[in-house]
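Obj.: predict assembly geometry.
Materials: sequence records (below).
Method: joint structure prediction, all chains together.
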Amino acid sequence: MTGLSAAEFGLLNALWLRKMATRGMLEENADVPSAVAEPFLEAAADRDLVRALGDYIVLTDGGRRAVLDHYDGEYRSLREAPEFLEWYERFEGYNSRFLGLMSAWQTGTDEAQERTYSRLVRVVERHVDALDRAAGWIPRYRHYAARFRRSLDNVDSGRTDYVSSPVVDSLHNIWFEFHEDLLAVLGRPRESVED
Amino acid sequence: MTVIAEGMNVFETNKQPSGTVHYLASPMDVIALIDSGKLRDHILLVRGGTTTFLAPALTMGAIGVITMSGAPESHLGILSREFQTPCVMTTYLTDGSGSRYVPGETGDEHFEEIVEALDGKNVKLDCSDHDVGKVVVLD
Amino acid sequence: MDSSKLVFSFHEADPSDPNLYGGKGAGLAELVGAGYPVPPGFIISTAACGEFLQAASLSEQLRSQITDHIGALERSTSCSFRARTEQGEDSGPLLVSVRSGAPVSMPGMMDTILNLGINPERAAAVAEVSGSARFAAEVMIRFHRMYSEIVLNADGDHIADQGSDFLTGSDPDEADSSLFERLWSAMSDAEVDDVGTAVPVDPMDQVHGAVAAVFRSWNTRRAVTYRRLNGIPDSLGTAVVVQAMVFGNLGSPSGSGVAFTRNPTTGAPGLYGEYLEGGQGEEVVAGTKTPEPLAEAAQRLPSLFGDFERMALELERHRKDVLDLEFTVERGRLYLLQVRSAKRTPNASVRIAADLMTEGVASPAEALSAVTPSQVRDVERPRFAPAAVADARASGRLLVRGIAASVGHTHGIAVLDPDRAEAIAAEGENVILLRETTSPFDLHGMIASTGIVTARGGATSHAAVVARALGRPAVVGCSDIGIDPGAQTFTIGSSRFAEGTRLSVDGAAGEVFEGILPLSQPAASNCGLSDVLKVAREAAADCRILGLCTTPEQVSETRARGADGVAIRLIDLLVASGAIEQLAHELTAQRHRDRVDLSPLEAVFSDLLLPVVRAAGRTPIVVRAIDLIDGDAGEFLDLESLLVAHPGVGLPVGFGELIRLQIAAVAQAAAQNQGMPVAYFVVRHIADPRELAMVKELAGEQVSRQGTGNVEVGALVSTPLGVHKAVELARTSRVLWFDSHRLMVSSSGYPAAVFTSAEPLDEYLRGNRLAEDPRLGRDEWQQRVFAALTAVRVGVPGCQIGARMARSHSPELLSAYYRAGARIFITEPEDLRVAILELGKAALQQASAGEVLAAAPALDSTLPLVGL
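Observations (raw structure tokens):
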């Protein structure tokens, strides 16, 4: 199944990244207006690409294939580009650092929080700079950079739930989605494999 | 009250969730389980430590998770702390063949042995220790 | 002072000028000046920061002053950045730390780089002095970790890992002399690989790089945001503190510790802290190693810790505050590294303030200013334990959010029907009444419940109004809740719950949780609180503070909190009893009559008043007239048809019979409660002395009809027009009342609901869309209100001024009313103690400022106030 429009891919991909979402969340994440999203998601349900789960929407196996096929078509040549692969290697370094600091943030004492967060911010900011560089290959990565900046602003304004809470567009949520995205670009999506 | 398996504890908690172990091999398994309305009856068993397809199960109120690989400093670890869902990672059988998970070197038989031993068992998770999480057989 | 001087030794700096030397620098200067042992060092002033940010580089002048001060440091420590002194002798290694020190502490600033001065050459000297090559290697790795991360923006952990990996498997103490060169290269290579540049070898270059990094950190996004949100000027700049390193892990006896001059959890007096033998300070702070209690260490090193305790307590008396001290012992010598005000729990804070006052260390004004309103609230109000809330939130037990309609925390079992709620509550259960919406038919169930949750309705819905009147925590408008009364179940999202499910309700945050969240006990045992409030009460002895009450229980509760009297909103009595229905019925039934007669309701109204009036005993009572149009009554009456039937209700005293009815009821209740000297009856929106005269006339008639029961009539100024006429109104009043909340609402034109919860305005202000927070009483309009108060105080000495403060009003607004001349205050019961505290602070402040503040604030000449 190929031939998804940019908006359609945006919606299905948002679902692939989040794993489960309401329509409103998808429209917001993919930046697609309701007038486009609603008929497409209805059609996608008819074609068995998505289905309802309680108040949420999830991808079916077919939907997942459609998304990953689109990645394959779009980014095949990038998977061979040495510079991009080098960029990815560097991300893996940031990633393990980010996950470690995030865990420290969740389990740390109050005294240590300020320092942990400062270090976390440094990693995120470095990654945001890297995202701006990667936007040459993948323009939609600019959107992640914008989301990171918005969440950093929120944390700086005192809303610390924007660090790791799963129910807001927290730094961890954005990072998690980006990581899924990048692995799909590389043709190594995580489905059921270990690790 | 026998400890059947142990692994890395993601966070210390006094919660002791119990239920029947349910092995989830794919995203559709997760959705089917949520659909069944029985999510809260089960302790979830998965292979991966960053098994991102578990996110919906955590959101919908999963009570406990056992993984066969991966480390507490991972996306799944972070999410399970946020949801306060007890989680034991890179779990191995305390009384099995002695096989341990080694990244990149572990064959399917390691995972199959664990699934064989745990799937369908009525267990309780003990995550009160800082480092070690335990899977305790009930009945 | 020489403006070209940018760098100062601790002796040269003026401790009273944190704006120039930063908080940290000024603090160190103070310690050094008073003779306390502090590692030697110097301060680069905030002026240098401004210069740097403009030029984007360190000036020659600054570099040369830094060089001079490093020279002085080398002489005083007999150590050096270079291997040989100017006299050609071998020198010990000089290692320094570089820290930021802004005038106000803020997040996002570069904090600390340790061990500057280390390089392959000096590492050999460190190895020699310490007798350990491993120690020197660790100093080097640590330096690279911090410097590469903070100055070069590299991945410091990764760099340090390269260093540690290099050392693995070899014993530095057995290695040859090239070890430090190779270790340095391993890390430099990793740095070049990561960010294209490496940590400089030359110690002077290291210092320059670190100083520039501190200055740059003034403009990190986080610091800029923090300053914007907290109104800190960007021009302030940060200072830099450069200080010789001391090592708690070098030789013996050595170690590091942290101490508090009092227990920061309970406030109990006595030095309290921990000491880590052979450890560095951060290891204690980060909790990576387990230290021993200070008392145990003191048994081993009695003279050293005896000195330390003496110093700590002396410093506490000097600063009049509980202190948090970081210290290091290097080979038997004690150094203070940091002395700052200690973070403490609300309970500790209140107790400490009271103790410092009793001990004569702090004056009453100093003690009061050390206690914040939120600390008082924390100490007095039972609330969910924060850890339990965090756990509930994290584990997905936060079921639903709605509108925070009535403050307070409570829990109980969910009941979907008012009859069952009453029955179950009668068995002694705590009940949370959960309804789609509420109506007067639910009233008995609402009275029986401890908390109320509804699926529909806003902050002025029936449920919200009644809950506030009854003092029950409530969350309304939880649109995610679906209720199935037949099945006796309710749903939230896709989850279904049965009646009887245990719920916890946070009426302040508007949150409903599944399960019972434990309530912390109000610390009634905190004797400190009553001491502090007693002092505040004495300071504000000329004030009268009244608590708003609906029930006799609230009256006794309110008086226990220190109220001098009681205020009643008649509308609250009507909605809490359901009598509003009778009023509505009469008004509808008499819609075609020329002369409305509400006298049948007199007895009903006075029966409602009597229990509360009786409970109040001999204390003054203020009764606020019903306002059918503007306020909570809208939920109970069909306003449109009411206005058609009785057009006069739209005007303050346009519906005389309703006013007469209320005065008659107040007079009857007052007559039956013999001891009461006088009841005040106030009418909102009055702006003309003629309106007031009309109400007075009615009151005179009613009182003479009763023969007893003295009722004094007053105006509650709530409109701009009323503010303009304040002085005229005051001339015929014993007390002129101001409705602070309504005045805020009418000036902005925002709906009142905007002010009833904090979030919309907080969000608006965070978004930088208003220069002034209207709730703080700082804007020009409110200045005009205060000017009117002052004009009344100065121009009509016989009239007292009262202010009605809304729920959770800002303490700043209360003090502004006090300063302008208000001496009678009406607050919600839960705000009473905070109000007493803040009035005490304001009174002491005014007293210390003498006559200056007593003068009227300047008036805005462009818009003269009518009647002045």
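Conclusions so far: Residues 2-137 of chain B form a domain with the Glucose Oxidase; domain 1 fold (CATH 3.50.30.10).
To do: check interface contacts against the pulldown list.
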